[in-house]
Amino acid sequence: MSLKEPLPVAPGTAAGPRAEQPHRATVWPEARAAAVRAGDFARAGRAPLGAPLGQALGQVLAEPLLALTDLPPFDTSAMDGWAVAGPGPWAVREDGAVLAGHAPTAVAGDGEAVRIATGARVPSGTTAVLRTEHSRTEHSRTEHSRVEHPLTEPIGTLLHALREVVPGQDIRPRGQECRSGDELLPAGTRVTPAVLGLAAAAGYDELPVPLRPRVEILILGDELLTAGLPHEGLIRDALGPMLGPWLTALGADVLATRRIGDDAEELYAAVTGSTADLVLTTGGTAAGPVDHVHGVLGKAGATLLVDGVKVRPGHPMLLARLAADRGRPGHVRHLVGLPGNPLAAVSGLLTLAEPLLRALSGEGDGTPRRVPVRDEVHGHPYDTRLVPVVHRDGRAVPLRYNGPAMLRGIAAADGLAVVPPGGAHAGRELDILDLPWPKAAGAAPAQGACFT
Ligand SMILES: Nc1nc2c(c(=O)[nH]1)N[C@H]1C(S)=C(S)[C@@H](COP(=O)(O)OP(=O)(O)OC[C@H]3O[C@@H](n4cnc5c(N)ncnc54)[C@H](O)[C@@H]3O)O[C@H]1N2
Ligand code: MOO
C-alpha cells in the first residue's frame, strides 16, 4: 500500500512561535482521523515481526493467515472402529490396527477390514469407516484358543455391519477444512487462544504481528512531586504513574517515563534524541511563560499535523511529525503533546495517541460503540465534550468531577461519552470511548457518589 504523507489539517506546516497566530483548532472527528492517517503512514514500510505463537496472543495479524497445509492433512477416520473396503462382510486383517499418529500398515483390499482409531490415517483403498458399536465380529472356532492382543485380530475373524454402510462414511477427507494456501483469517484479526490453535493446526510456529509501537513519555513541569503530599505550590505528578500503564494497556512498548521539568533545552534534547515511534509530552502545550512544547517543535523542524482540537477538556493538545532521524531516515516518528491538566491529558490520549497507536499496530480505527445516555448532558456551544460515564442497564450515566484538572470521575468510569456541540438530551445515543481494561467488580458504591 502506498500512503501519501499526511498533510497538516489546518493552515501552516511549521511549528513556530505562537504569538498572534490565528485559531487553528481542528474539529474533534477530524483530529482523530488525522491521528489514524499519521499512524497508517508510519506503519507503511515497517516489516512485521515473526512472533512465536505464545507471544502473539492479543496482537493482530499483520498478514492474512494462509493455511500452510491441507486440513486434515490426509484422509482420517472420524471414529474408532474399522476401515473397510467394499461391501461386507469383511475379512479382518490380523496384521494390526491403525492408530492415530502411525502410518497405516495395511492397504485395504476389497472385502477386507482393519481396526482403526479416531484421527488415524485411513489405509488407501478404504471405502468407509464402520463404528465399533455398529459392528459385530465372528471368530472361526479353530482360532479361539489363541491369546488375544488388543492390536492384532485372531486369524479368520469376520466383520459384519449392524447398519447400512454408506461409502465415505466417517472418513474426514484430506482438505475438508482447507487446502494449503487458503486464507483462514484476514489481516487485522485479533490473535485469540482459538486463533493460536488454528494457526498451530495449520502449521505455524510463528505468527506475523506488527512491531509493538515504542513510546517514550516526557513529563514536563517544575511544580511536580513524585512522592508525598502537595505543599508550597508543589503538586503530585498524576500523569507519570497513569500514562505508562495506560499505554501498555493499549499495546505499546513504553521505553521510559522521564521527568523533564520546564527546561526547554532538556526537552529539545529529549525530543530530538528519542528513538521511540511516539513521544508523548505532558504539559507545556499552552502559551504560558514556561510552555515550551511549540517552541521546541519549531526548533526541531517538526510539522504540526494537529494544533489544538475543538474538544473540552484538552483543547491545546497537538500532534506533530518529528523530523527524520539522520541515523534512521526511514523511521517516521510522531509527538503527541498532551495538555497538563490531568483529564485534559486523558482527552488528548484518547483523541490523538490511541488512534495513532491503533493504526500503527494495524488495528483499524476502533469505531466507538453507541449507547443511549441516561441523563441530559450539557454541551459546549462549539466544541465536542468528552465526559466520563459508567454503564448501567444498557445506558451511559454521566459522572460528576469531570473538570479538566480532575481525575475523580475518570477513575470511576467505564468510558468517555462523546458529547456533540450543544449537548445531548436524555436517551440520545452517543459514541462511547471505552477504557482499555475490564470493569472493576464492586466499584458501584464509589461510582454512585460521583453521579451528577
Ligand atoms: N492563556 C491561556 N491559558 C491557558 C489556555 C489558553 O487557551 N490560554 N488553555 C488552558 C487549558 S484549557 C489547558 S488544558 C492548560 C494546558 O496547559 P499546558 O498544557 O501548558 O499545561 P501546564 O500549564 O504545564 O499545566 C496545566 C495544569 O496542569 C497541571 N499539571 C501539569 N502536569 C501535571 C501532571 N503531570 N500531574 C498533575 N498535574 C499536572 C499543572 O500544574 C497546571 O495546573 O492551559 C490552560 N491555560
Ligand atoms: O482544555 Mo483544558 O483541558 O479545558 O483545561
TrEMBL record:
Enzyme class: transferase
Disordered: region residues: 1-25
Keywords for the protein's UniProt record, in alphabetical order: Magnesium, Metal-binding, Molybdenum, Molybdenum cofactor biosynthesis, Transferase
Involved pathway(s): Cofactor biosynthesis; molybdopterin biosynthesis
Domain (MoaB/Mog) ranges: 216-359
InterPro entries assigned to the protein according to its UniProt record, in alphabetical order: MoaB/Mog-like_dom_sf (IPR036425), MoaB/Mog_dom (IPR001453), MoeA-like (IPR038987), MoeA_C_domain_IV (IPR005111), MoeA_C_domain_IV_sf (IPR036688), MoeA_linker/N (IPR005110), MoeA_linker/N_sf (IPR036135)
Domain of life of the organism encoding this protein: Bacteria
EC annotation from Swiss-Prot or TrEMBL: 2.10.1.1
Pfam families membership: MoCF_biosynth, MoeA_C, MoeA_N
Reaction(s) this enzyme catalyzes, per UniProt: adenylyl-molybdopterin + molybdate = Mo-molybdopterin + AMP + H(+)
Cofactor(s) essential for the protein: Mg(2+)
Stated family: Belongs to the MoeA family.
Function: Catalyzes the insertion of molybdate into adenylated molybdopterin with the concomitant release of AMP.
Name of the molecule in the record: Molybdopterin molybdenumtransferase
Organism field: Streptomyces zaomyceticus
